């Protein structure tokens, strides 16, 4: 839901049904529309992924996670780069709740990053090695999964098990623009690689017929899952 206006976002939501997909609210729409829009979509039955990627001192991140959980969202995330103490604080804030408990995932290496970016910011090794290190931190802290590129999904599953979610942005249907993403796969490739949740933004939001693109991605995913089940 990376739209510049609530009206545009709501226009797309009105063409979709909960169950066909989830809604991801990130920094741009949240900064514009705030928590009331998230609450309204939750009330309407949507699973909302609040993608605010909290990254701060442990106490602040814990407070932000509690606030996100109070909105009733389905999933919330933090940056694994915040380190073990911050991840533990986020886990305690969410895991210690009675009642609604959102899934808690950690961003490993942004899908817009490649080797050149990691070298520039001083993150050691290849992107897949940094993803593995940060997945180790998220797993040790008891999180529900990580955000990574689908290119690393198989390795994350091997490292942390089937139940540990692999949430994958950087998904691009064949023929669509790569934009600023660097580590990408198609929906079918992402499913085959072991992604559990596909994140698709601009290929949908910038399409002339967004609901048609959502349907076509859902079909591609369903066909891939069926083919996999038949093996
Ligand atoms: O590593 C990451 C983590 C989050 N994102 C977010 O996902 C969407 C992707 O949008 P596209 O338009 O499909 O590129 C966007 O909201 C990012 O903030 C990510 O891309 N990579």
Give your account of this protein's structure.
- Residues 1-217 form the Orotidine 5'-phosphate decarboxylase domain.
- It catalyses: orotidine 5'-phosphate + H(+) = UMP + CO2.
- Belongs to the OMP decarboxylase family. Type 1 subfamily.
- One of its GO terms (biological process) is 'de novo' UMP biosynthetic process.
- One of its GO terms (molecular function) is orotidine-5'-phosphate decarboxylase activity.
- The protein is an alpha/beta fold and 231 residues long.
- It has a single domain, classed as Aldolase class I (TIM Barrel).
- It contains 11 helices and 7 strands.
- It has helices at residues 6-13, 27-33, 35-43, 58-70, 84-95, 115-121, 127-140, 153-160, 187-193, 202-205, 210-229; strands at residues 23-26, 48-54, 75-79, 103-107, 145-147, 165-168, 197-198.
- Strands 1-2-3-4-5-6-7 form a 7-stranded parallel beta sheet.
- Strand 2 (48-54), helix 4 and strand 3 form a beta-alpha-beta unit.
- Helix 4 (58-70) packs parallel to helix 5 (84-95) and helix 9 runs parallel beside helix 11.
- The longest helix has 20 residues, at 210-229.
- The chain starts with 5 loop residues before the first helix and ends with a helix.
- The model has no long low-confidence stretch (mean pLDDT 97).
- Residues 2, 26, 51, 107, 110-111, 147, 169-170, 179, 181, 199-202 line the site of the ligand O=c1ccn([C@@H]2O[C@H](COP(=O)(O)O)[C@@H](O)[C@H]2O)c(=O)[nH]1.
């Amino acid at each position: 839901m990376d739209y510049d206006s609530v009206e545009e976002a709501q226009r797309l939501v009105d063409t979709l049904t909960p169950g066909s997909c989830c809604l991801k609210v990130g920094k741009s729409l949240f900064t514009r529309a705030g928590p009331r829009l998230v609450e309204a979509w939750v009330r309407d039955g949507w699973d909302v992924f609040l993608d605010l990627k909290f990254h701060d001192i442990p106490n602040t991140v814990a407070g932000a996670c509690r606030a996100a959980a109070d909105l009733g969202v389905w999933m919330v995330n933090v940056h694994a780069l915040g380190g073990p103490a911050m991840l533990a604080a986020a886990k305690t804030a969410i895991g210690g709740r009675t009642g609604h408990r959102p899934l808690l995932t950690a961003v490993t290496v942004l899908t817009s990053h490649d080797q050149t970016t990691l070298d520039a910011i001083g993150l050691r090794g290849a992107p897949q090695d940094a993803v593995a290190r940060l997945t180790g931190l998220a797993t040790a802290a008891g999180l529900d999964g990580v955000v990574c590129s689908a290119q690393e999904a198989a390795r994350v599953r091997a490292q942390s098990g089937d139940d540990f979610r692999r949430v994958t942005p950087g998904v691009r249907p064949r023929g669509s623009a790569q934009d600023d993403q660097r580590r990408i796969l198609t929906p079918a490739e992402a499913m085959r690689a072991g992604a559990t949740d596909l994140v698709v933004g601009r290929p949908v939001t910038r399409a002339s017929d967004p609901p048609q693109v959502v349907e076509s991605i859902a079909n591609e995913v369903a066909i891939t899952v069926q083919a996999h089940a038949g093996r």
